[in-house]
């Protein structure tokens, strides 16, 4: 202890002051503490503010997509026009195209207006029928073909109104803008107002937006997300079924069994690199391997699912490895000490304990995959698909769309009515994401046995 | 040292249950255990004492090949159980560990029910034919571990909900449910309060009638209380090994003496 | 496979979806799947071979290239049909609140080119406002959103506006004199890089949003897009002609281009509904001047009848000329 | 028998094997499992594996080898002259296979038997028409030799398929019997099953490697095409990016790389301080309630589709920055700029930085904090001088991950930063990034085989190498510091 | 206990440096410390002994308000340093902790250089005016901690690269660099090997000339070796407090006696 014999007092030693008197330095330090704390709180505030701004803008733009303007009126289904043979033969009735139905509806609308005593001065027949969506004829035709006995009767039908009229009731279109608009005139809007007063026109919940297929640019009011939701659901199913077991198996191997050498290092770098590879590169991979090399069909959920699986796999592996690492080694020791083999120790004890972490990681990976657009652009998922895919597993090979792609798609369309639909689709996407996160939290609570 | 309560010294006359000859352990470059020769007798409690880091745990883990799970560990020398080399290629460590059970420093019950904790070993080794038989094994083991009375009404409650001492006894019950021949315990009481410690010590004394028990402890008092034979390790060497009474009252080696008189450690 | 698969130009995409939708409604066949992805990618997919896992129709906003035809040949796609569906007008429009413009190609050249002729001299372009370009224009800052080079529209813009303007303003002569025949002509297409001319790689919606954010900007749009947004955009005349389906069909309005689709002949009669679809597409009900495509902004082809005949006869296209 | 059916049968046999194996193991010890080496179930599994694995492996190999062998046999049947008219043997074989499939369909539809099919003659029937009726597309009319080849192909493949079914099923049964015969109480069934599982697990971990190979492979092939058309020196060393629709483009990489780096840099400039401070606040200061609310709220930011951010950049942030900063400062009047994209991307990246850093900061042992508090440090001093340095390797990792996100982001840049490729220092100028150009060049109207399109793959490859380098750097940093401090 | 080496019993005659009256600590519902009264004398080493979980650490952490960082902990009663209540509202715990330093069970050097570790306290408290002065403080502290000779050539090597014993001495140097008046040590040797332990013990003995030292230990031998006064805790109560020699040779309370004779604990 030769060192300690130099008993000089510490040069920094200062005369003691009372504990109660905070000196200038302490005050300064406390101020800096307060400042630091404030920066932290400010960072949180900034993040949350950004979230609120984003959410309000999405909600503000998109909520209106869930409501739609409909025209409800009686339509006389003239047998002479719709069933020329008079036999009720479906094949013959199918010969009548939507153009024929459009005429029937046009007549019915004029009649309904006349009955309610609404003046239509200055508007020609084309402008009046322009209040209706072009989808109206198609939906009426489908109804009639589904139930041919309707022909010859007068039935009450609910038909979509034109997107501009709908926009008028939602505030997107105004009288002023209509003056400049080549697709609608202020007079038509006046008429729409009168129809609404007369109860012919109303705004109500739009189930077609959630369950219908996509529609062309001529009828934004009919565009729905059904195919996209189903396509996304199929893809998520594929991702879940493939990525979860493969990811967990790979993590178990890497974390518990792999010898620690250059090769496993390489695999490790490789996996963390894959987690950071831009998603667009996975699109290129999917295009080359799954479509060109393996000959899988375009626009099919199976290809999207596979690409997203490869993309999600690293996320799941990383999360799973972290979860496995977090299981205390004492549990492994306990099992091994009783004579369980390593495999048994892992399957019986470690995996169940790591489950919450694994599931959270999986769901985060899934959520990422759900919102991914760029790789899908390259494998043909940005298609106009109106037919619903079949039931799985064949349905996996049918063309379908996906939610984020549908958003992208809507934002590219000319008609301004698609703007609210894009935001509406984002809302649906966010709801799905939130649901998945809620499930993650629930699962975590459920599995987290802090016994 | 006259005020230490020394357990009665009736040493069983069994031949050696386990024999170690020239055991050396390396952790990578670190030579943690140097040339240890020892005979663990049947029906006896053997205590390993020594300062921290001297290699007690290391040697204990050699006895049931738990060191196999440490990637950097290398074990040389020969360890025999009933005359069979346990490091032989043909020996499955899993089977070995069923015969040489282990209890750890910190109680580590599985996050399962008490019943499942005890039944786990018999299940994976297929020791029972029927549910009734399994129930029987669980009951016997818990009874042997002196825990039955405390938990018999809540066998399906989580094992982690027990107190520390109960958990440790549960771990002992779990270990003896596979009816091992040797029971290794690495500082089984260091995480327990005095009352729980006393219970576990009493238990160890009872277990000795059926198993060979090897216990690592930091507390010389504890070694004196529970063991019949004591081995003193120092810096990786087995310094002295003999009857507990003799080690504590009449150590041969100066290092042993300075340790038990509190001059080192 | 029982549905028709179509891919290609995003300019043709809206028309194709309108037809596909109507086709699905009125025929027993399922609605065709129409994919965007660009003309080049569409043609490449068309030429990947014959068979179920290749597409049937490629939409294209420009004529097929010899390299595509060669690719088709090597992959066994011997015969393809070329169908011209009409014309796409390209219009110049600014925010609805802004002033009126009456452009000539030379104005655009002088506003956007890297080098312009000033007083007979070739000088770097320094025009800041439209008034610097043409005294008749208001002194509004120059800011133009033009299609990015990935777009077929850009080719039309290059040829019909920049090259024409280059010639008309006399810059071509000066450039050829300064740099030689080939480089000089190429230099006609060189745009200024000081940020007054902005390439848009996205869609017209993006251009529209950018105009909403920069009220004094002028953007390049498709006629159909403009027609759907007449309440937000004010269109400029070119060479004194107001763009409209009529003025483009008559050839008065200079900036337009034909739109095509290409059909893999081997699939005709094999993929159910393919023949019906292409006939339906070019029928008067659809592509005619009164049809929905025209209503949406397609300039219908004055020679539509000829196309209909060719489609009915399944005439494959001849060599590129 | 179809492959699916064979697989099902093999699996059925394997399940049977499982039951038998288990029983046999038990009966070998007269129902007393204690004398078995492993649990009875493991014996069952061992039989299962012996039955299924070799048989399925055989099936897969056969399914791969058969077409190759068949092709070479059948293609020899078509005379040179006919091959020449097709252009290549590959195309002939494609047609042969299509016709063979078509013949099946024709037979099914028309109810023809084998004799009827044999009798069909290419020169007598309109084969193309008949095949088209059943939905098989042919590029041209059928040549007689090709039809013969197709018939041969059809019958031969039928025979081979039968042979395959028999072989596979035999293998399964043999495996089953062998495994059953092997069973004895001493057999280490558990070790066997576990060994197999281990191989399976290792196989799964190779998928990640395979993915990388797939990426590199798919990028390299097309990149090679690109570099055949376009000099690599121009690509790597040219400072201009100016693709032309009709060729003659300048495709220099650097303006794009510069834009990518610039945008990412600004994004990190936003996200790292905010994210890090948020993480610090959450882990060191915030009460339980604030944490329970703020942490998930911030994480929602990561879930918002990037296209929403893109629109936000385009409509809100861009004009705001232009009117309040760029124009007053005389830095230009572009509403889309590096700054816009960087800011918005920074917001998107906040949760990446904050979540990861939060975890890492929480992982710093409490003893570090205790040590610092015990010396009389305030909380902020502890954070700044002890916790952050200790967590640094992890935080660097998090930041690098965020950086690779930033580099790979597409939508925000498309809408926020514009599409102008240029080398400029002014953050209020529009620029563009590599990813944006990958998408736009791949989905453009230019012809596919042109350098203007193929450049996308070369860009992809560059991007891949870039993130790879970044990751290796991250790993090296993390390793180095870990060695020092743990 | 006659063979225990008892440190010389020269108790400093200073008045109490710290006084505790009626200290109670609750962790949530758990009443961890019950009504403790104690005087810590200046220039003295005070040892707290007692079985695991009896509240030694808890009380120690009350003395410099480290318990403030535990959200669930509630401290009642009164503790004074030089006559001033340290739990007074006006007292900044940060200033307090500069005067009452602490060394922990596991060596916890910061992941910084040796120099920065020691300089940390003086820097944050602004104790030095110049770099030279700081260098001086670091050197003196390291010398006092008997570490200077071992590290003087690698002051800028990471502190985590030292051996366990060196790390612990580094932590002590770090604590005394702020020249505290009281030094609290919670089982400072339990993670160290015998040689390192001996060095630290020697160091503690020397420190006593300048600081009051309070040390928690599990090893009665250690308490006997280094302390002048010993307090025995049991189940949250302060059972007995007095001169070390007296506690070990002539305990007043039966619980103390059974503990130090090894019957419990
Ligand atoms: N997994 C390991 N890897 C590397 N070295 C190890 C490992 N386990 C122990 N060691 C080293 O081996 C030596 C002996 O350690 P061991 O744990 O056997 O000591 P011990 O006597 O049980 O000590 P304690 O009383 O502290 O438990 C020590 O130097 C230790 O650092
Ligand atoms: N942070 C905490 N939260 C809740 N309870 C605690 C906490 N720290 C200690 N306790 C409880 O307070 C009691 C006293 O603990 P303390 O750590 O003071 O014991 P100790 O005498 O230091 O024991 P040891 O010798 O094991 O360190 C114990 O019952 C313990 O469980
Ligand atoms: Mg140990
Ligand atoms: Mg303690």
From TrEMBL, chain A:
S-adenosyl-L-methionine in keyword set: no
Sorted UniProt keywords: Cell membrane, Membrane, Transmembrane, Transmembrane helix, Transport
InterPro entries from the UniProt entry: DUF3333, MetI-like, MetI-like_sf, Phosphate_PstA
One Pfam family here: BPD_transp_1
Transmembrane segments: 36-59, 233-254, 274-296, 302-324, 350-371, 422-443
Membrane association type: Multi-pass membrane protein
Protein name: Phosphate transport system permease protein PstA
Organism: Gemmobacter lutimaris
Taxonomic path: Bacteria, Pseudomonadati, Pseudomonadota, Alphaproteobacteria, Rhodobacterales
TrEMBL record, chains B, E:
Keyword Membrane: no
GO biological process, alphabetically ordered: phosphate ion transmembrane transport
Keywords linked to the UniProt accession: ATP-binding, Nucleotide-binding, Phosphate transport, Transport
Classification of source organism: Bacteria, Pseudomonadati, Pseudomonadota, Alphaproteobacteria, Rhodobacterales
Entry's Gene Ontology molecular function annotations: ATP binding; ATP hydrolysis activity; phosphate transmembrane transporter activity
Protein's organism: Gemmobacter lutimaris
Name of the molecule in the record: Phosphate ABC transporter ATP-binding protein
One term under GO cellular component: membrane
Chain ranges of the ABC transporter domain: 18-260
Stored SMART domains: AAA (SM00382)
InterPro entries, A to Z: AAA+_ATPase (IPR003593), ABC_transporter-like_ATP-bd (IPR003439), ABC_transporter-like_CS (IPR017871), P-loop_NTPase (IPR027417), PstB-like (IPR005670)
UniProtKB/TrEMBL annotation, chain D:
Membrane topology: Multi-pass membrane protein
GO-annotated cellular components: plasma membrane
GO molecular function list: phosphate transmembrane transporter activity
SUPFAM superfamilies in UniProt: MetI-like
Biological processes annotated in GO: phosphate ion transport
Keywords associated with the record: Cell inner membrane, Cell membrane, Membrane, Phosphate transport, Transmembrane, Transmembrane helix, Transport
Primary location recorded for the protein, binned into one broad class: membrane
TM stretches of this protein: 43-65, 162-184, 196-221, 256-280, 300-321, 341-365, 386-407, 454-478
Residues of the ABC transmembrane type-1 domain: 257-474
Localization: Cell inner membrane; Cell membrane
Signal peptide start and end residues: none
InterPro entries xref list: MetI-like, MetI-like_sf, Phosphate_PstC, PstC_N
Pfam family, one: DUF3708
Coiled coil regions, renumbered to chain: none
Role summary: Part of the binding-protein-dependent transport system for phosphate; probably responsible for the translocation of the substrate across the membrane.
Protein family per UniProt: Belongs to the binding-protein-dependent transport system permease family. CysTW subfamily.
Name listed for the protein in its UniProt record: Phosphate transport system permease protein
Organism: Gemmobacter lutimaris
């Amino acid at each position: 202890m030769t060192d300690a014999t130099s008993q000089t007092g510490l040069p920094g030693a200062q005369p003691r002051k009372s504990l109660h008197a905070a000196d200038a330095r302490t005050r300064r330090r406390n101020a800096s503490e307060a400042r630091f704390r404030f920066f932290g709180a400010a960072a949180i505030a900034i993040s949350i503010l950004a979230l609120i701004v984003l959410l309000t803008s999405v909600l503000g733009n998109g909520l209106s997509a869930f409501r739609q303007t409909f025209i409800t009126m009686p339509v006389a289904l003239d047998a002479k026009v719709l069933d020329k043979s008079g036999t009720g033969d479906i094949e013959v009735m199918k010969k009548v195209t939507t153009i024929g139905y459009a005429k029937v509806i046009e007549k019915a609308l004029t009649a309904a207006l006349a009955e309610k005593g609404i003046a239509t001065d200055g508007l020609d027949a084309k402008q009046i029928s322009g209040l209706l969506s072009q989808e109206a004829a198609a939906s009426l035709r489908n109804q009639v073909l589904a139930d041919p006995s309707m022909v010859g009767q007068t039935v009450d039908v609910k038909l979509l109104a034109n997107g501009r009229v709908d926009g008028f009731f939602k505030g997107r279109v105004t009288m002023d803008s209509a003056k400049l608009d080549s697709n609608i005139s202020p007079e038509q809007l006046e008429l729409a107002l009168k129809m609404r007063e007369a109860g012919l026109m109303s705004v109500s919940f739009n189930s077609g937006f959630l369950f219908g297929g996509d529609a062309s640019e001529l009828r934004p009011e009919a565009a729905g997300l059904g195919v996209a939701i189903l396509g996304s659901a199929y893809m998520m199913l594929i991702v879940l079924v493939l990525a979860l077991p493969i990811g967990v198996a790979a993590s178990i191997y890497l974390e518990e069994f792999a010898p620690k050498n250059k090769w496993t290092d390489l695999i490790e770098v490789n996996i963390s690199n894959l987690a950071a590879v831009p998603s667009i590169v996975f699109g290129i991979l999917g295009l080359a391997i799954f479509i060109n090399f393996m000959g899988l069909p375009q626009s099919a959920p199976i290809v999207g699912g596979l690409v997203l699986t490869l993309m999600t796999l690293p996320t799941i592996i990383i999360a799973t490895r972290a979860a496995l690492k977090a299981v205390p080694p004492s549990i492994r020791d306990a099992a091994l000490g009783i004579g369980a083999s390593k495999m048994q120790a892992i399957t019986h004890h470690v995996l169940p304990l790591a489950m919450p972490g694994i599931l959270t990681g999986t769901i985060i990976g899934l959520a990422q995959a759900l919102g991914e657009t760029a790789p899908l652009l390259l494998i043909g998922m940005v298609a106009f698909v109106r037919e619903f895919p079949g039931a799985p597993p064949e349905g996996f090979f049918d063309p379908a769309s996906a939610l984020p792609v549908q958003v992208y798609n809507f934002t590219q369309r000319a008609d301004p009515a698609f703007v609210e639909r894009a935001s509406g689709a984002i809302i649906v996407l966010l709801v799905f994401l939130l649901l998945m996160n809620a499930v993650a939290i629930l699962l975590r609570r459920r599995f987290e046995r802090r016994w | 040292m006259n005020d230490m309560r020394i357990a009665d010294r009736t040493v069983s006359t069994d031949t050696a249950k386990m024999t170690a000859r020239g055991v050396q352990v390396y952790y990578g470059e670190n030579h943690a255990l140097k040339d240890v020769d020892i005979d663990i007798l049947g029906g006896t409690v053997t205590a390993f004492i020594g300062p921290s880091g001297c290699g007690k745990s290391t040697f204990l883990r050699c006895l049931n090949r738990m060191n196999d799970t440490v990637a950097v560990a290398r074990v040389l020398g020969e360890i025999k159980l009933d005359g069979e080399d346990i490091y032989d290629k043909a020996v499955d460590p899993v089977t070995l560990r069923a015969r040489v059970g282990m209890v750890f420093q910190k109680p580590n019950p599985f996050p399962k029910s008490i019943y499942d904790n005890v039944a786990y070993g018999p299940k994976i080794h297929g020791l029972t034919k029927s549910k009734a038989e399994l129930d029987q094994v669980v009951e016997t083991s818990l009874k042997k571990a002196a825990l039955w009375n405390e938990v018999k009404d809540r066998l399906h409650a989580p094992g982690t909900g027990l107190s520390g001492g109960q958990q440790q006894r549960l771990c002992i019950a779990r270990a003896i449910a596979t009816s091992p021949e040797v029971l290794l315990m690495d500082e089984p009481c260091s995480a327990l309060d005095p009352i729980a410690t006393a219970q576990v010590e009493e238990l160890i004394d009872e277990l000795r009638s059926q198993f060979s028990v090897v216990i690592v402890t930091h507390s010389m008092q504890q070694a004196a209380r529970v063991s019949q034979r004591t081995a003193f390790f120092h810096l990786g060497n087995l310094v002295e090994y003999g009857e507990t009474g003799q080690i504590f009252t009449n150590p041969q080696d100066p290092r042993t003496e300075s340790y038990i008189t509190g001059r080192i450690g | 496979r029982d549905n028709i698969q179509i891919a290609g130009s995003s300019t043709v995409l809206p028309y194709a979806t309108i037809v596909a939708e109507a086709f699905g409604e009125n025929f027993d066949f399922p609605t065709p799947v129409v994919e965007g992805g660009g003309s080049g990618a569409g043609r490449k997919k068309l030429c990947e071979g014959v068979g179920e896992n290749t597409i049937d129709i490629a939409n294209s906003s420009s004529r097929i290239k010899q390299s595509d035809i060669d690719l088709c040949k090597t992959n066994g796609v011997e015969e393809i049909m070329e169908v011209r569906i009409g014309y796409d007008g390209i219009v110049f429009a600014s925010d609805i609140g802004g002033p009126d413009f009456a452009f000539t190609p030379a104005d655009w050249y002088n506003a956007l080119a890297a080098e312009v002729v000033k007083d007979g001299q070739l000088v770097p372009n320094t025009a800041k406002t439209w008034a610097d370009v043409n005294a008749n224009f208001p002194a509004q800052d120059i800011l133009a959103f033009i299609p990015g080079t990935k777009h077929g529209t850009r080719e039309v813009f290059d040829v019909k506006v920049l090259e024409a303007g280059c010639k008309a303003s006399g810059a071509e002569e000066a450039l050829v004199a300064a740099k030689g025949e080939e480089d000089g002509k190429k230099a006609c297409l060189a745009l200024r890089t000081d940020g007054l001319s902005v390439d848009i790689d996205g869609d017209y919606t993006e251009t529209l949003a950018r105009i909403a954010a920069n009220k004094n900007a002028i953007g390049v749009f498709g006629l159909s897009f403009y027609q759907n947004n007449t309440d937000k955009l004010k269109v400029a005349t070119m060479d004194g002609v107001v763009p409209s389906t009529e003025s483009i069909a008559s050839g008065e309005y200079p900036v337009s281009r034909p739109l095509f689709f290409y059909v893999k002949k081997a699939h005709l009669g094999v993929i159910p509904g393919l023949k019906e679809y292409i006939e339906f597409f070019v029928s008067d009900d659809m592509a005619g001047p009164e049809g929905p495509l025209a209503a949406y902004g397609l300039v219908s082809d004055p020679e539509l009848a000829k196309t209909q005949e060719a489609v009915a006869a399944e005439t494959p296209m001849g060599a590129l000329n | 028998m179809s492959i699916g059916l064979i697989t099902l049968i093999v699996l059925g046999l394997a399940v049977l094997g499982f039951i038998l194996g288990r029983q046999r193991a038990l009966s070998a010890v007269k129902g007393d499992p204690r004398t078995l080496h492993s649990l009875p179930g493991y014996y069952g599994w061992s039989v299962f594996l012996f039955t299924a694995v070799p048989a399925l492996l055989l099936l897969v190999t056969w399914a791969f080898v058969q077409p190759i062998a068949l092709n070479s046999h059948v293609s020899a049947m078509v005379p040179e002259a006919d091959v020449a008219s097709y252009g290549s043997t590959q195309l002939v074989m494609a047609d042969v296979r299509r016709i063979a499939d078509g013949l099946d369909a024709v037979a099914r539809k028309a109810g023809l038997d084998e004799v009827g099919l044999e009798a069909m003659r290419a020169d007598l029937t309109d084969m193309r028409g008949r095949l088209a009726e059943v939905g098989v597309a042919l590029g041209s009319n059928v040549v007689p030799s090709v039809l013969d080849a197709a018939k041969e192909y059809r019958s031969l493949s039928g025979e081979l398929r039968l042979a395959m079914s028999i072989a596979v099923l035999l293998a399964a049964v043999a495996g089953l019997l062998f495994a059953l015969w092997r069973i004895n109480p001493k057999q280490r069934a558990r070790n066997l099953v576990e060994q197999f599982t281990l191989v399976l697990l290792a196989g799964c971990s190779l998928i990640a490697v395979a993915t990388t190979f797939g990426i590199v492979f798919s990028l390299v092939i097309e990149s090679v095409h690109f570099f055949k058309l376009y000099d690599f020196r121009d690509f790597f060393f040219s400072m201009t990016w100016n693709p032309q629709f009709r060729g003659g483009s300048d495709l220099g990489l650097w303006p794009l790389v510069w834009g990518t780096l610039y945008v990412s840099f600004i994004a990190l400039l936003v996200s790292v301080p905010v994210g890090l401070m948020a993480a610090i606040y959450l882990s060191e200061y915030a009460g339980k309630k604030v944490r329970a609310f703020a942490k998930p709220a911030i994480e929602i930011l990561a879930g918002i589709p990037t296209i929403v951010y893109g629109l936000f950049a385009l409509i809100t942030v861009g004009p705001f920055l232009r009117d309040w900063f760029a124009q007053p400062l005389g830095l230009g009047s572009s509403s889309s700029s590096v700054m816009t994209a960087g800011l918005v991307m920074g917001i998107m990246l906040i949760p990446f930085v904050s979540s990861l850093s939060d975890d890492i900061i929480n992982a710093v042992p409490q003893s570090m904090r205790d040590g610092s508090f015990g010396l009389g440090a305030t909380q902020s001093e502890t954070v700044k001088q002890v916790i952050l340095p200790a967590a640094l390797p992890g935080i660097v990792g998090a930041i690098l991950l965020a950086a690779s996100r930033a580099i790979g982001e597409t939508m925000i840049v498309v809408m926020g930063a514009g599409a102008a490729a240029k080398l400029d220092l002014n953050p209020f100028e529009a620029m563009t990034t590599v990813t944006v150009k990958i998408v736009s060049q791949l989905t453009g109207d230019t012809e596919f085989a042109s350098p203007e399109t193929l450049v996308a793959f070369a860009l992809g490859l560059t991007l891949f190498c870039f993130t790879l380098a970044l990751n290796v750097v991250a790993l090296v940093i993390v390793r180095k510091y870990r060695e020092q401090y743990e």
